[in-house]
Amino acid sequence: MKLNIIRGVLITALIAIFVTIFGFSNQNSETSSGLSQKVTNFVVEFIPSIENMAEPEKENVVDRIESIIRKIAHYSIYTLVGILLMSLMSTYKMKELDRIAVSLIVGVIYAATDEIHQAFVPGRGPLITDVILDTMGVLTGIFIVMLVYKTICKMCGHKYNNMT
């Protein structure tokens, strides 16, 4: 019973993250860019040296910062996807390699379909580099779960048994 509750919570969290990602991807280019610009402007406020730059140089720096922020957002949200997927897979009696494989495959498939979805959104388009970045995020999430599990096993004096 307790395991079913944990699985239910993890599945609900995954669905919430997938819906959130879908929502971001469903924004047209103007809306998406506007959100990125708001975050970028907030970050830029903490970098006083940018204010003293000539306008063309300032625009160039702000554009680069915005690009980095967009990539960090991709990586971060897919790291969370990896954490949730691997945590969910860890509730099943499977070999560790199978848990990793299922988590990675589901994460990559969602990332790829999300990018394909963007091909149908005005001003947006699919980028293979985003799928690669998202995949790196999923892998990071998977390894975070593995590291936490191994650390907990070590702290509790249990032998690490490849999560089987």
Provide an overview of this structure.
The chain is mainly α and about 160 residues long. The protein has a domain at about 1-30 and about 75-155. It contains 6 helices and no strands. It is elongated and about 60 Å long. The mean pLDDT is about 90.
Please tell me the overall pLDDT.
Answer: 92
Structural class: mainly alpha
Low-pLDDT residue intervals, each spanning 5 or more residues: none
Rounded to the nearest angstrom, the distance between the terminal CA atoms is: 19 Å
Major sheet attributes? none
What is the helix/strand order? HHHHHH
| Helix content range | over 70%
| Percent of residues in β-strands | under 5%
Q: What general outline do the C-alpha atoms trace?
A: elongated
Number of helical runs? 6
Offer a quick outline of the entry.
This protein is 80% helix and 0% strand.
List the helices and strands and how they pair.
Elements: H1 2-25, H2 29-44, H3 48-51, H4 55-89, H5 96-118, H6 128-156
Helix pairs in contact: 1-4, 1-5, 2-4, 4-5, 4-6, 5-6
Question: Which descriptors would you attach to this protein?
Answer:
164 residues; mainly alpha; 80% helix; 0% strand
